[in-house]
Amino acid sequence: YSVLLLPLELYKVPIRILDHRVFVNGEIETFLENFEVRRNDSEVEKLFQVTETVGSLKYDLSERCIASGAENLNQLNREVNHLLDRVNELLAKAKVEPTPSSQLQEKRLAREQKRAEFLNNLEHGYQRIENSFEEKEEEIAELYSDLQLKLNIAK
User: Fold this and answer.
1) Per the CB 3.0–4.6 Å rule, which of 27, 89, 100, 148 could disulfide with 153?
2) Residue 62: what are its φ and ψ, rounded to 5°?
């Protein structure tokens, strides 16, 4: 049950903290009782005017503070967003990769040419081995057929 009343009580906290009307009214009544007899009604009237002025200033001041705070927060928000954009621009500039130097490009081209030459030589070597195997197979086939003829073996 007390958990359900907690939000209501928390809602009332700012009102209780900022609203001193009950206390001020009690003080005014005590003041009036003590001094009304000794003072003229004009002084009491001035006191009421001061109390009203203070009360209106309290509410006006709080509204002005809220409006000023909102305005300043909006300005700070714009400035922080501008700063964030500038940081992102700086990071984007920092990420740009520099173009490689001509010497580096030449060495890369030379490595590519050496690689292409190596692969070409390798392919040529494979072709020579393949041709060599074919020649040996033909020689072996000829020798085998000559051997069959000499031995008179039927196929």
Assistant:
1) 148
2) -65, -40
